[in-house]
Amino acid sequence: MSGPGSSVLHRSLIVAVVLTLLTGLAGLVAFLTREDSPETAAPASALETRQSAPLAPAPVKAPKGGQVAAPVKTTDPVEFAKAAAKVLWSYDTRRLSQPEYITGLKRWMTSEKKYADWASVADLVPDPVLWSRMGDQAQYATATVGEGHFPQAFKTALAADPGAITDAYIYAVTVTGRQSIAWTGSDQGTGAEPRSSTLAIQCRPDRDCALAAVLPTTAP
């Protein structure tokens, strides 16, 4: 399947799988209601908020030959989530084109299309025009990861029904850290902010972990 309809179905499936474990049916209904509200929309990146001037159309720049870090090979969902968060919070428009960055992120995704919500990851990436403008200012971001953990509600639900995870083997992991940003052509030139995300990580017993989705809100 492809297109907006399948994207919505994928996202609903991922959220249902994880949140059924997190909060049960009542919590799932409440979560899906909040997902469509402005208050729970994914926040724009710090760089996007700094682009206050209207952007004129611009051609996509040629590939620069950069590379996104390769997925870590581990069966530990927390370790994988921390590595994935670092990649999601990092980018470098000086050495990567927007298509190259997207291609690199896709390598982190699960190959099981039934559970892969690529749209939730793609929503975090600036569009080609904005990326080009960011490149004009040599903007890049680095990230440090503080810690990762299973949300308490996830642990509680999983303890109550350990077998619930054995279909998709998707774990909810909340990661916190800090993103540092630098660019040229500004009096400031740098910026930093704390970051926190809850990722859906698939870790089947017979294979390395992979990213399934970025949940629209962060679970404590």
Key phrases:
globular; transmembrane helix; 220 residues; five-stranded antiparallel sheet; alpha+beta
Largest sheet: 5 strands, antiparallel
Tally of individual domains: 1
The parts where pLDDT drops under 50 for at least 5 residues are 23-63
Question: Using only CA atoms, what is the Rg?
Answer: 18 Å
Helix amount, in percent?
Answer: 25-40%
Spatial strand arrangement across the major sheet: 1-2-3-4-5
Distance between the termini: 33 Å
Question: Could you spell the SSE succession in H and E letters?
Answer: HHHEHHHEHEEE
Structural class: alpha+beta
**Overall mean confidence score, pLDDT:** 77
Query: How would the global form be characterised?
Result: globular
Alpha plus pi helix count: 7
User: Would you report the number of β strands?
Assistant: 5
Beta-strand percentage?
A: 15-25%
Structural write-up:
It is a single chain. The protein is an alpha+beta fold and 220 residues long. It has one domain (4-50, 66-214). It is built from seven helices and five strands; from the N terminus they run H-H-H-E-H-H-H-E-H-E-E-E. The protein has helices at residues 4-35, 46-50, 77-88, 98-106, 118-122, 128-136, 152-160; strands spanning 91-92, 140-149, 170-182, 190-202, 210-214. Strands 1-2-3-4-5 form a five-stranded antiparallel beta sheet, with helices on both faces. A hairpin with a 7-residue loop joins strand 3 and strand 4. Helix 1 (4-35) packs across helix 7. The protein is globular. Mean pLDDT is 77; it is low at 23-63.
Task: Give the SSE layout.
Layout: H1 4-35, H2 46-50, H3 77-88, E1 91-92, H4 98-106, H5 118-122, H6 128-136, E2 140-149, H7 152-160, E3 170-182, E4 190-202, E5 210-214
Antiparallel strand pairs: 1-2, 2-3, 3-4, 4-5
Helix pairs in contact: 1-7
